[in-house]
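Hi W., the pyridoxal-5'-phosphate complex you wanted:
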Amino acid sequence: MISANSPRDLDALFARRAFEFDHANPILADLPKENNETISLAYGDADPRLFPIKELIASVGGLLHENTDAVLNYAPSDRALTELVATRLQRRGVAVDPQNILITYGSSQILGLLPQIMLNQGDIVIVEGPTFLGGIEYFVTQGATIETVPVGTQGMDIDALEETLKRLAGRGTQAKFIYTIPTHHNPTGTMMPLENRKRLLALASTYGVLVLEDDAYGDLDFRGEMAASLLTLPGSEWVLHIGTFSKILAPGVRMAWAYGPTAVMQRLRKFKSDQGAGPFITRLVSFIAQDGWLDNHIRYLNAEYAHKYEVMRDAMATHFPVDVQVSTPGGGFFVYGYLPQDMPARALIDVAIAHGVSFLPGTVGYANGGGTHEMRLAFSFQSEANIVDGIARLGKAMHAYRAQQ
Ligand SMILES: Cc1ncc(COP(=O)(O)O)c(C=O)c1O
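Structure:
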């Protein structure tokens, strides 16, 4: 019984899941701080030099002259953006029902909403190990029990996935969804081959598990080729696909999309309690994308990011010890490194920071432990000069770490 004399405790008021948040990220909290001198290769921010500033200014001006009421008043999202997403999915061979497209504030919004409609406390979600840290956090804070399936050189290990699904079925339980980044994977940069994509969906159908296909880097292919979305393969009725304008326009516009089965989309729409994506920002994105501009811009970005990757690759070949292995991505924002046994990433990072460079330790991408000798290097954000300088500093840090052992 609460009386006027009971101790007041704000913490006593929170839902249980709000406390999960406190534990979600001890690894990041423990990392040494970057400073003004640090060349950060840790985070996959877009390259600000590649933002289409002139076009954005012109588009905002054009919009405000066009129909102020439609973009600045209480108004629905711009249908043209849904149509743009529909056209882009159709071009990839998806038989699109536009009713099932949802425009969201970043694909992160779906990573947060999907657990709300799918998970009861303790329900199982299968993720790749390693995977995108944001995904783990959203799932764990909403009560998920995480099962990890390893990522090899060809993305998620499908044999290991099958074993996991079998093991769960043997226990009389099942996962609610499988979170995968099949194309230009974050953090490893790997690509899941077509055959494995098909096997993944066959398993999802057999075991009755939803597949969350995160296609954040789908458009960012150095050769301008697009991998087959899971939406185009047999079993696609088990797929919820998310894509984003963050990487192909600017993360700050916070525009993204989801497409999937009607039953899922209806519930996501219901739980997305923001009255729909805003008319101003949705119109801005559809306005700037028109007449093939976005396609041209993506071609330009791919050429630029491919070049930045090559700069990083060449610098690593020059400066890293020969027993440090690195991935060879065909797109996306990241190189993944595998460190020798005598060089754990967490210890190396202290020396790296002292040498003026940072990276993300692999442990961050593992929900159930692992990745102690792995690291993610982003080539997306820094200038080419800084990439060369940063990798030279990291190579020095690696040699220095070895020398002090
Ligand atoms: C794999 C992956 N998914 C989702 C996101 C989040 O993207 P958005 O800006 O659309 O929320 C990122 C951003 O880094 C990502 O790497």
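Residues 44, 106-108, 132, 134, 181, 186, 214, 216, 244, 246, 251, 256 surround pyridoxal-5'-phosphate (CB under 6 Å).

W.
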